[in-house]
Amino acid sequence: MPGSSAESLTDRVYIEQVRSLYLHLLPAVAMWAAFALTFWLAFRRTPEPGWLLLGVAGLAASSLRIGLTIIFRDMALTGALDRPKARRLEIIFALPYFVFALVLGLLGALIFRSPVPEIHMLTICVIVGYCAGTATSCGLRPRLAIASMLAAVGPPILVSVFIPDPAYLAMAFIATSFVLGGARSILVRFEVAKAEIARRMVSISLARRDVLTTLPNRLALQEYFDENAVLISPHRPIAVHYLDLDGFKPVNDRYGHATGDALLLAIADRLRGAIRSGDLVARIGGDEFAIIQFSLHHADEAALLVRRIIAAIEQPFIVEGHSLTISASIGTVVSHDRHQPLESLLKAADARLYELKQARRHSIMFAMIA
């Protein structure tokens, strides 16, 4: 069954984890500013050459991380990713991220060796903030998150142990406890996310799957909606997308139904790879699909998914030796009403899809006339 093997499940979890690394940019900017302020205040008090070297290195690594995130964010969040592409994106993110953590830890150790307690206090605040941000933004990549936390907090802890002051020894003990607890929380979060994705992929029975693509069918879509709409926060909107394929009928007519069916299978796989964990995609007609998004933080996340799906479908398909290119049209509605039935949301999304197609036809006709 496509999508249910251990290999495909592992890849799906991994790709979703890598996407999560590129979700948040503001915390990285805030950490850059906090590090720059701490470095500037510390260097003013103790203008050591080693501090200058580490400060410049930290600002460079943080700036590189922000720049690379901006450059590759759209690809990570909207592109159709396979495991090799996701691996490259992870490396691009992880290298400057870990280098900054290491620099932060080394600079913190040097600062703690200096006799300036007020800078010590500021430094530990920055390190604790960094670790908290790491647990949040990188929590779905446990190795990166835990390694970065240890690199940032480890050197200052080691220096604090040898400072002849009980307060520093207590701080080292408390910081160690927080890091160990944070690492445990990250591992638990990872297992929960992995189990959630697995449950979404295998919990729907064959009776509720489309025979050709093995995607959920309309019945499964309805059941999933009914079960989950009442469980999520009333402050989180729901998005329903109605998708149909542009250019599928000519493929069917030219190459035959067998090729058309193989193309639908390939499209179903790309749709599985494009949605987030917790979303559901179903086939509800010949070349028509529906997608439900729950627990949106912002309505913009619905538009982000639309872009990701369109980008995934527009890439050429190699089917039975043929290079086939099609596109997709998607109508979307976003609702805050938990009591609005799925059928009415689907009708509204379908109506929006029709409006988009009509507007596109009118634009083409106007261009031809002009």
TrEMBL record:
It comes from the Bacteria. SUPFAM superfamilies: Nucleotide cyclase (SSF55073). The chain crosses the membrane at residues 21-43, 49-72, 92-113, 119-137, 144-163, 169-190. Residues 236-369 form the GGDEF domain. Keywords: Membrane, Transmembrane, Transmembrane helix. PANTHER family: DIGUANYLATE CYCLASE DGCT-RELATED, GGDEF DOMAIN-CONTAINING PROTEIN. This is GGDEF domain-containing protein. The lineage of its organism: Bacteria, Pseudomonadati, Pseudomonadota, Alphaproteobacteria, Sphingomonadales.
